[in-house]
Design goal:
five-stranded mixed beta sheet; three-stranded antiparallel beta sheet; 12 strands
């Protein structure tokens, strides 16, 4: 009996191996056309791996074999990876020629079909205009900065002699800050209920669309439904109250005073987009700035000197104003260098809307293109000694406008929230370095840089008041 079971098992394993080999070979033959980029396609459904879980060494090996423009298969879709800076710039700057956002359906399901990152054409222009009306330089200067200053003062209070996980703390900071800007006084009421649902939502954005209990996608879809219900209730209550608040939600609801008459679904997707963007960029950059500044005392001393100079002209209760923010030159350099060195934004996805030729190869309609920009951040010609944390390299302002600097996107997709995000982090750092000294607790060698920057066991710091 045991022999029969063993033979059956061996036959099953052999059959599976044969089936796998045939399936992979079939997928390779499907895309073996002379005009396509070089590369291997692997599995027809999952590809060699999920595109957002690619190891940097895997991409380097593929480039060594096939060059800086190669194909493979992932998440059920044939994909081309571009690791060439000039090609990346061309792809990002030519959306009108048929290179539109190509993010997976899971992102649309979870962040919403009106999410500004995924819409294109006239819808993108309309949603971009609506968002710009909320975070224009005038709005930032006159309404948003005072709210952020007030929030940061509160958020960074009572840290004296506390051990704090800065990964979690900066996530909460980014979440509460955006919510306060959007919902004003009501943000306190809904924040504690909304926050755990939001962090569930984030997990499944780039997951496989497997709607089964226990999967990230399933948890995220449930979380989105709960968040939508909370935000819809908030909008209805605001309308019923007569809406006398001075916040983003008030601005977007006053259709007679702006040119953008968004429906409730578009408003909800806009709020979720802002929350998600802050979670992915502001929180991570803030956390990594703390790590790099601790490891580079000269940079920390220079940063503290800049902020102490600003604080010396004020009383202890005076807020930061626009002129103060504009004077934070070294702070801006620290933020840009942190974004570069930590590669906060690893890559960008585009999709072809028609057959097109790029780099001498045919890219069929419906294929994705993964614009991988991490290598550019470590280009020694652009950034001498690229693996060193050197904020001074940004002080002359030339690098920020360099055509290969893709941290904030490119073309019509250049990040609208760039200045808002930098201002949030600058305000955070201001109160951090003028109030506290800190020491690391337990070491921080487990920071994972791919696919997202993450401290796998947290980033714990012991804080002591410097006053």
């Amino acid at each position: 009996m045991a022999i029969i079971l063993l033979l059956a098992l061996l036959i099953a394993v052999l059959s599976l191996c044969i089936f796998t080999s045939v399936l992979v070979s079939w997928n390779e033959l499907r895309y073996r056309k002379k005009c396509l980029p070089p590369g291997t396609m692997g599995w027809p459904i999952f590809g060699p791996t999920n595109i957002f879980k690619l190891d940097h060494n895997f991409l380097k090996n593929q480039r060594a074999r096939h060059g800086s423009f190669f194909k493979y298969h992932t998440l059920g879709c044939p994909t081309v990876v571009s690791m060439d800076p000039e090609l990346n710039r061309y792809i990002l700057m030519n959306e009108s020629k048929g290179l539109v956002p190509g993010y997976p359906q899971s992102m649309l399901d979870i962040l919403g079909k009106c999410n500004i990152s995924v819409v294109h054409g006239s819808t993108h222009k309309y949603m971009r205009g609506a968002l710009l009306s909320l975070i224009s330089p005038t709005m930032i200067r006159e309404q948003i900065l005072p709210k952020i200053d007030q929030f940061m003062r509160s958020h960074l209070s009572n840290w004296h002699e506390q051990v704090i996980d800065m990964q979690q703390k900066t996530k909460e900071m980014a979440f509460f800050s955006v919510l306060k800007q959007f919902a004003g006084i009501e943000s306190t009421k809904i924040a504690r209920e909304l926050m755990p649902e939001f962090f569930k939502l984030v997990l499944g954005v780039f997951s496989l669309r497997i709607h089964l209990p226990g999967t990230n996608y399933h948890h995220s879809i449930k979380a989105r439904k709960n968040i939508v219900n909370m935000l819809r209730k908030l909008i209805e209550e605001r309308r019923a109250s007569g809406d006398k608040e001075q916040d983003m939600l008030s601005c977007i609801l006053k259709t007679e005073q702006n040119n953008y008459n968004l429906d409730d679904e578009e408003i909800i997707d806009l709020i979720i987009s802002l929350l998600y963007s802050g979670n992915q960029t502001v929180s991570t950059t803030s956390m990594m700035a703390i790590k790099y500044l601790h490891d580079h005392r000269q940079a920390l001393d220079e940063l503290r000197k800049e902020h102490m100079g600003i604080r010396a002209k004020k009383s202890s209760v005076d807020p930061i104003n626009w002129e103060d923010y504009r004077s934070m030159k070294f702070t801006r350099a620290v933020i840009l260098e942190t974004s570069r060195l930590a590669s906060i934004a690893t890559g960008i996805l585009r999709m072809t809307t028609r057959d097109m030729e790029i780099n001498g190869y045919l890219i069929p309609k419906g294929w994705r293109i993964f614009v991988y920009n991490r290598d550019v951040n470590y280009d020694p010609y652009l950034y001498p000694d690229p693996f060193a944390f050197n904020p001074w390299r940004w002080m002359d302002g030339n690098l920020e406008t360099h055509p290969y600097f893709f941290t904030f996107g490119g073309g019509t997709r250049h990040c609208l929230g760039k200045e808002l995000g930098i201002m949030e982090i600058s305000t955070f750092l201001h109160y951090l370095v003028t109030r506290y000294q800190w020491e690391e607790v337990g070491g921080d060698k487990l920071v994972k840089y791919f696919p997202r920057v993450e401290a796998t066991k947290g980033l714990h710091r012991y804080w002591v008041s410097s006053c």
